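User: Show me an example of a complex going from sequences to C-alpha cells.

Assistant: Sure. Here are the input components:
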Amino acid sequence: MIAMPSRWRWLAWTAVALLLLAAPFLIEATLGRAWVRIANVALLFIMLALGLNIVVGFAGLLDLGYIAFFAVGAYCYALLASPQHAMHWSFLVLLPLGAMVAAVFGILLGAPTLRLRGDYLAIVTLGFGEIIRVLLNNLNRPVNITNGPQGITLIDPLQIGGFSLAQTHSFAGLTFTALHSYYFVFLACAVLSIIISRRLEDSRIGRAWVAIREDELAAASMGINTRNMKLLAFAMGATFGGVAGGLFASFQGFISPESFHLIDSIMVLCMVVLGGMGNVAGVVLGAVLLTALPEALRYIGPLQQRWFGEVFIDPSDLRMLLFGLALVLMMLFRPAGIWPARRRTAENMTEKQHAAG
Amino acid sequence: MQPADTLLAATGISKHFGGLAALTKVSISVRRGEIFGLIGPNGAGKTTLFNVLTGIYAADAGELAFDGRPITGSKPHRVAQHGIARTFQNIRLFGGMTALENVMVGRHLRTRTGVLGAVLRTRGAATEERAIIQRAREFLDYCGLAARAASIARDLPYGDQRRLEIARALATEPKLLALDEPAAGMNATETATLRKLLERILGDGVTLLLIEHDMKLVMGLSHRVAVLDYGEKIAEGEPATVQRDPKVIAAYLGGSMA
C-alpha cells in the first residue's frame, strides 16, 4: 500500500465509515429495496467468507463443507427461538451458543481429518457438509426436532425486551425498516469479523497457521503443535459461520435444509479463492462481488427487452452461464485472486509497531 | 564418557521400511558442547536417523534420551520443545513468508499468546509480539541475513536459504542443533562463511549434530564422528582415527577393499 500521511488515512477511513453508514439509505434511494436486502446478504457472506478464509486461506485446509457450520448456527438459533419447540431464548445467548456449537462441530470435523490434505480432505469435508444437511432434513421422525424439509418458520427476530428489529423505527428523522436495522447489525458483525481476522493473521497464531500451510513438517519441527493448530483453525472458522447462521435465521424468519446445499459451500469457497486466498481485504471484496454479480445479472432480461424489443434468452439460464464465465475468466487472468495475499513486508510491520508503541 | 556429559543418547535404534532395514541397532551419544559429525555413503541411513531423533519417524526399537529425559516416541513439536532444532537436507522454508517471518515462526515455541490475546490485542500480547520481532531480527543478524529480512524466503539465493533455515532453528533456542547437509550445494566462499557461523554457534553454547558430505568441512569441524553404512554404525571416534579405519575406507571405496 502507498504510504499515506496519517491525517489523510484517518480522513479516508472516516469517509468509508460514513459511506457504509449511509449505504442502506443511498442504496434504497438509487437501486431500490431489493438491493438493501442484497447488501445485507453480502454482509453475511463477508462473515462466512472470512471464516472459511481462516481454514482455507490461512491454514491451507481445503474445506468443501463449510456451509454446514452456517446451518448449525442457523438451526441452533431457529430451534431455540421459534414456536417449533415453543422456546424463545434471547439472541444474546443464542448467537454465542451458535458460535460455540459450530466450533464443536468444527472440531468434530477436524479431528478425524487431521492426517488428510488437499483433495482427500476436500472429499471428507464435502461429505460432512452433506451429512449435516441430510440430518437436518430427516430429523423430523420419529421425534420431530427440525421439522424436516418443511423447515422452521416464525423464527424470532433480534429483540431485546419490547424492542424488535423486525419493526420499523424512527430515529433522528430517519425511518429504519427491518432491512435497515439488520443492515447495521450485520455491518457491525462484519466489521468485527474483519478486525478479528486481521488480528489473528498478524499474530503468533496466524503465523503458525501460515507455517502449516507452507510446510507442515517444517512447522512441526519448529515446535508448532500442528494437530491443535489445525483444530483451532477449524473451530475458529466455524464460529464465524455459526454466528452468521444465527443472524441469517433471525433475519429471514424461516430456514430449511434447502438453504445449505453444496453449491453454497462452493459459493463461499469461490469468494475466498476469487477474492484472494489469505488476504482479508481480498476475501471481503470477493464476498461482495460474488453476492452482487448474480443479482446484477438478473437485469439482462429487461436489458434484452430494451435493446432488442424482446427477450431472446431466459435470464435465469443466461445468468448462471455468465456467472460461470466470469469465474473462469477471473481465474485465467488473476489466478491468485482479485486482491492476492502478499505477505506483509518487515518494513510495514515495524512501522505498525512504532505506531502502536 | 561420563553420563553428565551426554546431551543426546540414542540406544539401539532400528527402523524398517517394509523389508528394508534403514537402521539396525544404531547407538550414538552426543556430548554437550561438541560438534558431532554423522557421515556415511548415500543411503546409509543418516537422514533416517535424523528423522527418528527429531520425532518425524517413530523407531521400531531403541531408546532416545535428551538432556537426561526420555524422548522416545515424542512428536516433532515436543522434541523441539525439549531443545532439538533441525534443518532439512532439501531446504524446507516457509516459502511465501519473508525471511523475518520465517524466523518469527521459530519463536512460536518460546511465546505464549493465544487466540484471545491476539484478538483483543492485550498489552501482554503486544509486548510479546514486539519481542518476537526484536528477537527474530537478532537471529537474522546473527546469521548474517539482516539485510534480507523483508525478502520472500523462496526468492533468496541458495546459500541465504540454508542460513535462514539455521536462523529459524536457532530462534527456538535449542540445546542441540541438528544440521542435515548444511553445506550441500554451496560454493567455497559460502562454505567458509557457514563454517565460521557454525563455530560461532558452538561458541555460544549450542551443541551441533552434523550430517555432511563435504569431508574437509566435517572432519575439520567435528570433535567426534560416527560412520553409518547400510543402516549400521561401523565406526565412531575422533576424525583422525575414523579416517584410518579400514571399515570406513571400505565403505567409501567399495566392499571389495575390505
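The lines above are the inputs; the final block is the predicted structure for all two components together. The radius of gyration of chain B is 19 Å.
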